[in-house]
Amino acid sequence: MIKSIQQFQENGVKRLTDIFVDYSNDFSKQAEMISGVKDVVLKLGCDIIKEEWESYDELLRKRKELRQGWYIVREDEITRTTSLGDITYSRTLFINKETGVRSYLADELLGFEKRELITEDALSRILEEAVESCYRKGGNNACIDEGYVTKQTVMNKIHALEFPEIIDTVKDKKKVKELYIDADEDHVALQYFEKKGDIKKPRRNTVMPYIAYVYDGIDTEEDGRPKLMNIKYFGGIYDGPDGTKRIWDEVYKYIESAYDVDSIEKIYINGDGAPWIKAGATRIAKAKFVLDKYHMYEYIIAATSHLKDSKQDAISEIYRAIHKKKKWMAEAVFDKILMCTEEESKQKAVERSKNYILGNWSGIMLSMGSKDKKIKCSAEGHVSHVYSDRMSSRPLGWSKVGADKMARLRIYWKNGGDMLELVRFQQRELPMAAGAEEVIYTATDMIRMENANRKRLGNMADIPTYSIPYPQIKKIAAIRHHIWGL
Fold first, then answer.
1. What gap in Å lies between CA 66 and CA 60, rounded to an integer?
2. For the chain, which has fewer Cβ within 10 Å, the N-terminal or C-terminal residue?
3. Nearest-angstrom CA–CA distance, 166 and 175
4. Are 247 and 211 in contact (CB under 8 A)?
């Protein structure tokens, strides 16, 4: 850092002086002045970081006691993309002559993974842009100024993402009598499933990421618009019956973490009647399925639109049967409509509507009969804002993995997740996969492994940690403390 600041005093200050002199001669060049200052300041920042990284490598290179058993092979340059710009610095390759292992010890010390050329701050900026716009713009947003990451690299990073559980860690759980869950899905176009060319049937070129969100009430904003209280989103691609179980188990795990379950009397699951949505009422205790009124109306219109002058009478009869809670009466109305329908395509539409209304009768009864004015499904709008804005409203094509990861990234973002924390989550040890056997080590095994580790590390395994308020000595202490498992 000292060298960088000295160089800045010699060159950077002079450049800043020249910039301000030019500006004082022509105040119309305000943009040029600001841009020039930005360039100088960013270069200073990059130089300081470069010097800092190289200082640890220099200590390891010069002080053999810090790397006992490790010998210098060569010095290489590497360029890493940071949020300030690309930084090229030198690092030394070492070899352990006992084990034959080669390593850039400074990179190991500083936490750089092999083949990882993007720092966590730059990657978080990439995700912040890619979640809203596109992979290309995400790559362009990696650095404040100059610097670029290819859209292929951005895609690979997003495909590799893992996401933390959606749970609440509050000590005092919320107590409510009613809880509401809205659910729906989007239709996202696919270019391919696993690899290009593996989609043979045009009808199979879509995938449906699910979305479900939990809230405990509806408030009214200043402009009169309704606002869902304490909303929490869940979503992604969940295939088959096992996927349906997973998403509802995730939802219920969150409910258990955020709410006093004993105080909840009713949980309403609002949706369009899709099997996976109705399954939530059997998977979650105290839950009941409520059919979305919008979809009910949509199917009633589909069954009556061809009746011309008698259309309104037919609609009124269907609603009369619903309000009287008489399923047989609704069935009779649909049968009467079928008798008046000649076109085969219209007959199929009436049959679909009939099966839909009768098949979701209990959900309709809850929807139409409940006095709770909060039972309103806004899932269509949320699908648009959470998924469609990024994934399906424009002519885009996805892979199945890409659609799933982007859906989950959008869910994470809508829940207020911090992208830097998500990047750091990738470095954590993931939990053991379901079905994997737990490895239990005996005391003898642990001693044997520890002895092998000491033999590999040599004297470095016993170097103590201490803190002294001098930068150089602090760096030495950091090296002694952090070099492990090399």
1. 6
2. N
3. 19
4. no
How far, CA to CA in Å, does 337 sit from each of 92, 121, 310? 82, 63, 10
Q: Is the dihedral of CA 456, 461, 467, 472 positive or negative?
A: negative
Q: Which of 375, 373, 409, 376 is nearest to 390 (CA)?
A: 409
Give the SS3 label for residue 98: coil
Locus of tokens 């404040």: 144
What's CA 340's distance to the chain center, in Å? 52
DSSP bridge pairs for 259: 174
Where are the strands (E) in 99-151, listed by range?
Answer: 102-103
Whether 479 and 463 have beta carbons less than 8 Å apart is answered as no
CA gap 471, 308 in Å, rounded: 86
Task: Report domain extents, the chain.
Answer: 2-159, 178-425, 443-482
CA 67 to chain CA mean position, Å: 40
- For helices 311-323 and 293-304, give the axis angle rounded to 10 degrees: 140
d(CA 372, CA 147): 54
pLDDT in tens, 118-148: 999 999 999 999 999 999 999 999 998 777 8
Q: How far is CA 264 from the centre of its chain?
A: 29
178 bridge partner residues: 266
**Closest listed residue to residue 368, CA positions, set 326, 310, 313, 312:** 326
pLDDT tens digit sequence for 159-196: 999 999 999 988 899 999 999 999 999 999 888 766 67
Question: For residue 372, which of 270, 255, 284 has the smallest C-alpha distance?
Answer: 270
Which residues are bridge partners to 174 per DSSP? 259
